[in-house]
Design a protein that fits this description.
Strand content: 15-25%
CATH superfamily of the largest domain: Reverse transcriptase/Diguanylate cyclase domain
Radius of gyration: 34 Å
Number of strands: 15
Number of helices: 15
CATH class of the largest domain: Alpha Beta
Number of domains: 3
Pfam families: GGDEF, Response_reg
Largest sheet: 5 strands, parallel
GO cellular component, one term: plasma membrane
Order of helices and strands: EHEHEHEHEHEHEHEHEHEHHEHHEEHEHE
Catalytic activity: 2 GTP = 3',3'-c-di-GMP + 2 diphosphate
Shape: elongated
InterPro entries: CheY-like_superfamily (IPR011006), Diguanylate_Cyclase (IPR050469), GGDEF_dom (IPR000160), Nucleotide_cyclase (IPR029787), Rev_trsase/Diguanyl_cyclase (IPR043128), Sig_transdc_resp-reg_receiver (IPR001789)
CATH topology of the largest domain: Alpha-Beta Plaits
Enzyme class: transferase
Helix content: 40-55%
Length: about 425
């Protein structure tokens, strides 16, 4: 990366050179507009940084002249000035200045330049679905995307692209409006937005060779996030792709953090199973599901034996290890539909959808045997387990399930502990 600095003040030259060189830039410094013009004719630069007031020409006039040269039309130009008026800002933008920095705040110049250059150098990590039926255009766009460090899957029809979407997690879809095949680019946008998964929020960048405003508006109304016109201008395409990919990945991070916070709010921090608050939320849903599917629902109450004595004898740290060990065991034993929660203290609840009496008893016996073998906290641990089951056409009532299992736990305790007892209604 190479920067041209047009500045006649040694102080500001040092500040700018230091900032750019720290970012890995090679710098060339000149003091006049004439020297800058000659230098630009000989060398290629990635950015120009100039003063508003040059010895031989206004920085604004220099920028206007620069923009008339096709080779420099898209070259970023950053201007330094001590004038903070809105009028100057407007004139600078009209002249083709990319961004204006104020000399009165040296620290801000350094921070702003660093941020600006880092944006220019940013490399993107992500996956793009490119749908383009012109081999020449597809090759050009794929080259641009690859240079941005993006992985590209390219298809020439919407049908092939839609088949690939379920297998791939894409950060961006780039599609031409007009495509070969039975589905157009507009149809692709419509199909993606109709999907019942996170794929539906994948950003879409449309490509259009037509200047028909109605077609572009239709594409945006269907759910495209942005569009670029053909022939594609590389800098514009890269900027729009970068914005969409960055926004998608930022949203992914926010949603991941939200899911993580949600997990923290519904999990018991010591044992890793769900907490009592989430049990109150989830249990009615499982009852509704059982009635809808006309399937049995079983409930286990697992109550550790002599847990108070463990805490009193070995200390709460050892007791916590026992609880954590049981939580880990429940997590390993629960299937995809099963639900385990810590109800309080040493008492745990396990809900088993689609599980009848015989299966629930067998599950509880296996769980008790596994707990005996586990020796959490290096202690011989047992539990009293109460089991209850509601089978259609009985209405599913969690409170009733819990009461029956709770009474079974008391019978297990009275019977000597370290056993499974089946609860009975009434």
């Amino acid at each position: 990366m190479h920067a041209l600095i047009i500045e006649d003040s040694p102080v500001f030259v040092k500040i700018i050179e230091h900032t750019l060189q720290a970012l890995g830039f090679q710098t060339t410094t000149v003091g006049t507009a004439a020297e800058a013009t000659a230098t630009l004719d000989r060398q290629t630069f990635n950015v120009v940084i100039l003063d508003l007031n040059l010895p031989d020409q206004s920085g604004l006039d220099f920028c206007r002249t620069l923009r008339t040269n096709a080779a420099h039309r898209l070259l970023p130009v950053l201007m330094l000035t001590s004038d903070e008026s809105e009028l100057l800002l407007q004139r600078a933008l009209e002249a083709g200045v990319t961004e204006l920095f104020h000399k009165t705040r040296l620290a801000e110049i350094q921070v702003s330049l660093r941020d600006y250059i880092e944006r220019m150098q940013r490399q993107y990590k992500g996956r793009v679905l490119l749908v383009e039926d012109s081999p020449t255009t597809a090759a050009l766009l794929k080259h641009m995307l690859t240079r941005m460090s993006l992985t590209v899957d390219q298809f020439d029809t919407a049908e092939a692209a839609l088949d690939a979407i379920p297998d791939g997690q894409y950060d961006l879809i780039v599609s031409d409006i007009m495509l070969a095949g039975q589905i157009s680019g507009l149809g692709l946008v419509r199909s993606v937005r109709a999907m019942e998964s996170e794929v539906a929020r994948t950003p879409i960048l449309g490509l259009s060779a037509t200047e028909d405003a109605a077609r572009k508006i239709e594409m945006l109304k269907l759910g495209a996030n942005d569009y670029v016109s053909k022939p594609v201008i590389e800098e514009e395409f890269i900027a729009r792709v970068g914005n969409l990919v960055s926004a998608k990945q930022l949203l992914d991070e926010v949603l991941a953090q939200r899911r993580e916070l949600r997990e923290h709010s519904i999990r018991d921090p010591l044992t890793g199973v769900y907490n009592r608050r989430y049990l109150a939320e989830r249990s009615p849903q499982l009852c509704v599901q059982a009635e809808r599917d006309q399937q049995p629902l079983s409930l286990l109450i697992v109550d550790l034996d002599h847990f108070k004595a463990i805490n009193d004898t070995y200390g709460h740290d050892r007791g916590d290890r026992v609880l954590a060990g049981l939580g880990k065991l429940l997590g390993e034993r629960c299937g995809e539909e099963d639900f385990a929660a810590r109800f309080g203290g040493e008492e745990f609840i396990v809900l088993l959808p689609h599980c009848g009496k015989t299966q629930a008893l067998a599950y509880a016996e296996r769980l008790l045997e596994a707990l005996r073998s586990l020796r959490p906290g290096d202690l011989d641990i047992t539990a009293s387990i109460g089991v209850s089951t509601i089978t259609p056409p009985q209405p599913c009532d969690f409170d009733k399930l819990f009461k029956i299992a709770d009474e079974a736990v008391y019978r297990a305790k009275d019977g000597g502990r370290n056993r499974v007892v089946q609860g009975h209604e009434g």
